[in-house]
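ok so I'm stuck.
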Amino acid sequence: MKYENAKEAYAAYGIDTDSIIDRLSKIALSIHCWQGDDVGGFEKPHANLNGGGIQTTGHFPGKATSIPELKADLEKALALDGGAHRLNLHASYGEFGTTFVERNKIKPSHYDGWIEWAKKLGIGIDFNGTFFSHPLANDGYTLASKNKEIRDFWIEHEKRCRKIANYIGEKLNSPCILDTWIPDGAKNLTVDKIGYRRILKDSLDECFKIKYPPTHMKDAVETKLFGIGSEAFVAGSHEFYMNYAAHNNVMLCIDMGHFNLGEDVSDKISSILLFQDEMLLHISRPLHWDSDHVVLYNDDVKRVAEELVRSGKLEQVHIGLDFFDSSINRLGAWAVGTRAFRKALLFALLEPINMLKEMEEDGRGFETMALLERQNTLPFGTIWAEYCKKTGAPNDDEMVKRVMDWEKEIMAKRK
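replied:
not stuck anymore, here's the structure
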């Protein structure tokens, strides 16, 4: 009865909540593997026990120390969020066994276990080259390095990642999105910025020479403003990759944490989708710098979701999560972050867009503002509860209980 009343309240504004719930359940969120083990990876036996990750902080107990443990945690995380999913996998998470495999030697077969796991769950896989936590990345440059030996090593890594992505997409009959993010940049003043960017352009051209069918894999390049160790200069800036993507028919990846805090990331979406058919989004919660905080249902996240829906191109955007927090329960971080963005999408889908556009076009500014404010007091929570019920996900209180049970029964026993 409670849902029926809420459904009626939204119907007054022309919103069919049943169809919205059905649509939301089909939007796939690509869940990132690296939250489960603090971005350590499994290139060497117990490698992640010794750190070597990328700017994680905290020592909360219970992180995954093996691929079976990581898969178990991921399965639990997926069960805590209703709707469609994908796995976002880094190259350093291959199943290499006891033999160390250098990154310029990785093969598609190293990911067969993940593919079989994904088949069992009925999900797709996206992929990422791992251009960090490696001796040949210690000077701050990979694909933009002026050292040919270093540059060639990373070019070969990228070529192999693209081949692996194509293999994954073919095996799963679902396009694998291959995101390319590199840390290249400098902590202090850089004189030859155009030189490094020219090298990066040439390296990318070499990496992308082989054309794979878009039914199997799609390339994306990820922009960034700055990071720890690259405060003064980043070779792969937003402007660089926007131009590269436009000139080379490559997808652009926008990470919410890769811009100044004063920038409205949501405002970039319509400009990109007007000229490109698709884009990749990495959803995180920026806080002072590219810190990849757990996503919350806040204004920044809501604005991104609203723009995706208002643009009419929600299904043309590939959505991945990208955060890592080792100071709290890692499964809980996955659950809160994934469900927060799912809530943001639901709130955006429940917006009476046609009515709002008509008011805006008629110059009825006050009424537009008032209707947007009215949406905040409509029974959104009841619709969310119904969504959880219909998709088999726990409600918010039950979600917390299941996370704590997993911590007590599984994570607490890990060393």
